[in-house]
Structures are given as structure tokens and as C-alpha cells.
Q: What sequence folds into this?
């Protein structure tokens, strides 16, 4: 948009129109936040011309909130702008905490059945040949669990099956 | 439950069927037992019948009678040539009570064999089911009797009769061994003797195919390979068990009686004699004696004196 310029030759009506245009482009000084004229408003922006000032302002707006942080605490240094972790983490039952490196680990034999969800152990988690007979409950193995099952039917002299046995095939 | 088990190979490859034998499937084995028992009888062994005056167990007797010729003479009263002085006809009759030898019938029942011991049963017996349908070796005498021997006894009594006797004049049919004369009904002058023979059925004419029972061999289940009458299972287990029935109740036992008082008849034999007579007259000279002779009429009627049935009591 071209700059509005008033010429000596402009008639009064044009002078009025261009003056109103300039007023419109300048805006309504009453709508400024804190200043009542454009110069004051421009001067108010002076602090933002310095990045340190901006950083300082930003840092003063941050703070740590450790609500529900448990054993983990955040510490904020507004002068440096650093956030650091200060914790009182300790190992719980079955779990140890190495504060030097911040690692949690499970102690040997630290997991019992209460820590495992139902159906959480898949066949991939069980080593080959690891299930021994003592780990199979009574009445737990049916014919469907046998590999290439072979059926043994015993009939009485009337042709009625009186007993059926299942065995693993070759 | 004590029928022999056998392996039925007709199932799918991943299905093993063990079946207790039906009557039809037991036929061949039960027949072999009876053939073996018949062979034992044929050789005069335990249970065999024979004719003799002593030994073993008497089961009856029968006396044979023969009508005889009778003659009566009257001496001449003196010098009365041409005068008939024959004895009156009414005073001369054929003999009716002349006894021939008494025939004794006996059955050999002396020393029944012992029931096979455990080792013999373990080697030669068969597998069957117990009351819980578990598999076991048939080692109880009662199991073997109920499982097989009773079938043999039924067949022997009212089936093909293999292992049993009959008394008949002629052979009862195929596979009946001639055991010789049982009773000879002799007649005057041997004119119309009748010989009743003892016959022994040694085998049947038709037997179902072999169905091989299972056995335990070194703790493995295997099939018997031979169930013939000379096989181990028959000779060492089943035949002794069957023979032992001779000493228990009336199984395999015979009797001889004039009526069918018990059991079933295995033949009727009758002692007869000529009933009619023919009179002849003759004169002996020096001294002169007039004879009247009554001779059994060998082409005349016969009458029954006594009858006997051979009875199978089993």
C-alpha cells in the first residue's frame, strides 16, 4: 500500500480523506495496554530489544513443581536457568537402586508370582526342556497336549469301549 | 471280563484297539482246546470212557442175555414101537434167562492235573480285563474257566460235540473216531448180533479263523503265535484247566442209566433176545428116547430185555 501523501494541490475534500486514512493507519491510542500515545507505547518495548532481558524475564516465569514427585525432586535455579534432579530414590522389595548411575535393577530371586500378571509368561519366556514333571499339576495333561497322540481303546466282548488310553506317538 | 484280549489291526494308524473276544472270535481257540481234550480221550487219558471190569470210576453196567435152545426127552415106556411118547409141547420152551457176560462201563477219573503254576501261567496264559477294565494276565482258575472253558463245555455239550462221546451202531458223521465195541447185543447162534460202538468226536468240520490272544512276554504285550491244539497256551494252561473240571461237579462226566435221569443222551443201546421159538422132534435109539426141542426162531421177533443210555452229565 502506498504511503499517503498530501499534495499542495489537493482539494480540501482530498485533504480530509487522506488525513482520515493516516489516522486509521496509526490506530486508536485509547486501545493501547498501558500507554496513551504511540511514542510511549514504542518506548515500552525497549526492554525487548535486549536478549538478556528477555532471558531474565523468561527465567523468572519458571519454577519447579514437585507435587506427586515421589522420591524424585526437581530443583530450578532461575539465575542459571538449570533444572536438576535431586532424588531420594531407594530400592524397594526385590528392587535395588544404584544412585551412582541412577539405575534400578531387580535383585536375584526378587520377582515372585505377585509381580506377574495372569497369563504374563509366554512360551518364549520358558527355556527348552525347562518344564519338569513336578511342575505339571495333577489331571492337567489331556490327550490334546500329547504330540502325535496314539489312542488305545479297549473293548469288552460286547464291543463296548470300556477304557481309552492316550499316549504320545513316535 | 475274562475273555482273552486280542489286537484288532483294523483301526486307523494312530488308534490301537484291544478287544475282548466275542463267541465267534473265541471259536478257534475253544475248538483247539476241545481237539486237545479229544486227543487226550483218544489216547485213553483222563476223562476217557472204556469197557472193563475194574479200574477208574464205574458208570454202569449191562448184562447181555441170549435165548437158548432147550430140549426135553422122554424115555420110551417099553415095547411100544411107533407110539409117540414125546414130551408135551407146553413143557419145553427156549431159555429166556441165560446170562452172557456182564459189561462194565467206566470212566477214567483218577488223577486230575494240577492247576498250572504262576510261572507257567506267566509264560503261556493270555491277557484279559479285570473288573476295573485293567489288563491282567489270566492267572486265576475261575477267570480261565469263565473266559474260555465254559465256552468249550457248552460246545462239547450242545454244540459241535468235539471232545465228547456217543454210542451208536454206525458212525455219527465226519471226524468221529471209532473207539471200539461198547456193548454187543448177542443173539442165539449169533444170528442177529448188534454191536454198539463208542464214538469220539475229534474235531469239527468248520472252524472260524484264528484270532490270536495277547500275552505278556518280558513285560511286553505280544500276540500268541500259535493257538493250535498242540500250542503252549492250550497244552499248558487250557487243557489242564479243562481236565480239572472232571473232579468238580459233573462237568465232562458220563453216566449209564436205564432212563434219561440226568444230563443228555449220547446214545441208546438195548439188550434183546429172540422171543419166538421153533419146536423140533427127534428120537434117539438104544435106548430109545423121544426128544422135543425148542429152538429160538432166528428170523422171528426179538424182545427188549434191558436198555441203557449213555448220558453226558456236564
A:
Amino acid at each position: 500500500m502506498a504511503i499517503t501523501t498530501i499534495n499542495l494541490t489537493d482539494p480540501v475534500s482530498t485533504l480530509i480523506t487522506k488525513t482520515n486514512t493516516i489516522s486509521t493507519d496509526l490506530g486508536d491510542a485509547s486501545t493501547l495496554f498501558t500507554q496513551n500515545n504511540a511514542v510511549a507505547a514504542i518506548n515500552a518495548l525497549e526492554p525487548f530489544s535486549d536478549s538478556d532481558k528477555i532471558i531474565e524475564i523468561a527465567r523468572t516465569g519458571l519454577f519447579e513443581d514437585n507435587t506427586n514427585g515421589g522420591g524424585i525432586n526437581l530443583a530450578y535455579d532461575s539465575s542459571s536457568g538449570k533444572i536438576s534432579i535431586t532424588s531420594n530414590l531407594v530400592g524397594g522389595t526385590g528392587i535395588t537402586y544404584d544412585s551412582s548411575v541412577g539405575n534400578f535393577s531387580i535383585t536375584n530371586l526378587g520377582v515372585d508370582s505377585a509381580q506377574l500378571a495372569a497369563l504374563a509368561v509366554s512360551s518364549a519366556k520358558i527355556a527348552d526342556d525347562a518344564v519338569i514333571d513336578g511342575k505339571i499339576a495333577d489331571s492337567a495333561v489331556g490327550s490334546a497336549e500329547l504330540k502325535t497322540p496314539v489312542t488305545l481303546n479297549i473293548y469288552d466282548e460286547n464291543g463296548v469301549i470300556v477304557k481309552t488310553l492316550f499316549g504320545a506317538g513316535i | 471280563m475274562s475273555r482273552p484280549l486280542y489286537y484288532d489291526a483294523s483301526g486307523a494308524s494312530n488308534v490301537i484297539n484291544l478287544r475282548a473276544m466275542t463267541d465267534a472270535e473265541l471259536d478257534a481257540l475253544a475248538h483247539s482246546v476241545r481237539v486237545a481234550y479229544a486227543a487226550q480221550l483218544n489216547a485213553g487219558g483222563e476223562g476217557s470212557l472204556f469197557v472193563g471190569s475194574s479200574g477208574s470210576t464205574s458208570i454202569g453196567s449191562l448184562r447181555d442175555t441170549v435165548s437158548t435152545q432147550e430140549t426135553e426127552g422122554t424115555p420110551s415106556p417099553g415095547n411100544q414101537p411107533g407110539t409117540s411118547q414125546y414130551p408135551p409141547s407146553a413143557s419145553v420152551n427156549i431159555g429166556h434167562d441165560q446170562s452172557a457176560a456182564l459189561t462194565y462201563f467206566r470212566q477214567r477219573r483218577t488223577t486230575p492235573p494240577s492247576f498250572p503254576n504262576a510261572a507257567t501261567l506267566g509264560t503261556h496264559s493270555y491277557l484279559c480285563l479285570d473288573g476295573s477294565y485293567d489288563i491282567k494276565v489270566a492267572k486265576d482258575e475261575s477267570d480261565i474257566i469263565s473266559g474260555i472253558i465254559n465256552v468249550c463245555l457248552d460246545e462239547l455239550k450242545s454244540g459241535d460235540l468235539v471232545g465228547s462221546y456217543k454210542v451208536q451202531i454206525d458212525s455219527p458223521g465226519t471226524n468221529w473216531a471209532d473207539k471200539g465195541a461198547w456193548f454187543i447185543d448177542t443173539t442165539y447162534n449169533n444170528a442177529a448180533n448188534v454191536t454198539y460202538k463208542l464214538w469220539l468226536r475229534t474235531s469239527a468240520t468248520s472252524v472260524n479263523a484264528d484270532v490270536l490272544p495277547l500275552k505278556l512276554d518280558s513285560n511286553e504285550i505280544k500276540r500268541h503265535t500259535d493257538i493250535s491244539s498242540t500250542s503252549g497256551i492250550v497244552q499248558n494252561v487250557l487243557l489242564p484247566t479243562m481236565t480239572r473240571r472232571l473232579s468238580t461237579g459233573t462237568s465232562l462226566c458220563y453216566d449209564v442209566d436205564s432212563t434219561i435221569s440226568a444230563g443228555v443222551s449220547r446214545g441208546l443201546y438195548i439188550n434183546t433176545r429172540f422171543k419166538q421159538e421153533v419146536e423140533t422132534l427127534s428120537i434117539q435109539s438104544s435106548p430109545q428116547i423121544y426128544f422135543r426141542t425148542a429152538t429160538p426162531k432166528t428170523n422171528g421177533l426179538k424182545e427188549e430185555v434191558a436198555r441203557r443210555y449213555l448220558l453226558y452229565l456236564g
About this structure: DSSP finds three helices and six strands in chain A. Chain A has three domains: 12-59, 63-122, 134-168.
